[in-house]
Design brief:
There is one protein chain. The chain is of the alpha/beta class. The chain is built from 9 helices and 9 strands. The strands form 2 sheets. The protein has a 7-stranded mixed beta sheet, sandwiched between helices. Strand 1, helix 1 (15-23) and strand 2 form a beta-alpha-beta unit.
Length: 232
């Protein structure tokens, strides 16, 4: 069993396409479950999610990392996969995760992202992000395990202490703890469609600058907030 955990917050415009893509995987639906952990949406996010997901509930922990932790605690699967509500998952995504975890030494898996929206600028931005992931992985200096496209063994994740409930950088930080419990893999074929809406509305350089500032401050900042942005 693979449990897919998706944090949400006012995602009525995006959640359906994400969940539909998850419901049309190449493996039987009985081999995975979909868990939506909502951050107190004021729109129809939860109502839409209940049409597709196995479990929908409101988070009790702080931040996106806390929502994922809540989802893990409710999960039935031995393997946990996480993605975001505005992502689109290729039909082989679940199958690929299952195949990679046939390696008993593997504790965490992650892969690259591609832009859902068209445009050379979007492709170039994610080319840089994916290059950053590859540099960290192949140099074994850091693991840029984006929460929109990662998976891990539940028991190892719990032993590592789960995600820190911070505003940004929790995906980097958990990987550094998980690597002490087993191997981490960057799978080039484990791709996910990623929405560029944050960068389109708030600017690529500004968004990156805010993320770096928050991470540099230990994951929390009095000046910037990275999560629960209001989109047009």
């Amino acid at each position: 069993m693979i449990s897919v955990v998706i944090p949400t917050f006012n995602e009525e415009e995006n959640i359906a396409q994400c969940l539909v893509s998850l419901c049309h995987q190449t493996v039987p639906r009985s081999e995975y479950e979909i868990i939506v952990v909502d951050g107190g949406s004021k729109d129809a996010t939860c109502e839409i999610a209940r049409k597709y997901a196995d479990l929908v509930f409101t988070q009790t922990s702080r931040k996106v990392g806390g929502a994922r932790n809540d989802g893990v605690n409710a999960a039935k699967g031995e393997i946990i996969a996480t993605t975001d509500a505005d992502c689109i998952l290729p039909s082989h995504w679940i199958k690929r995760i299952g195949e990679d975890f046939k390696n008993p030494a593997l504790v965490q898996l992650y892969g690259p992202v591609y832009p859902i929206e068209e445009g050379l600028r979007n492709k170039f931005s994610l080319f840089l992000a994916n290059s950053f992931s590859r540099i960290g992985y192949y140099s074994q200096t850091f693991y840029y395990t984006l929460g929109c496209n990662t998976a891990f063994r539940k028991d190892a994740f719990l032993r590592a202490g789960m995600y820190r409930c911070i505003d940004a950088g929790d995906d980097l930080e958990i990987a550094m703890r998980l690597k002490d419990l087993g191997s981490i893999k960057f799978d080039e074929k484990l791709k996910v469609g990623f929405s560029m809406r944050r960068y389109k509305q708030f600017g690529t350089m500004q968004s990156i600058y805010e993320w770096i500032s928050i991470v540099s401050d230990g994951g929390e900042s009095a000046k910037y907030s990275y999560t629960q942005k209001k989109y047009k």
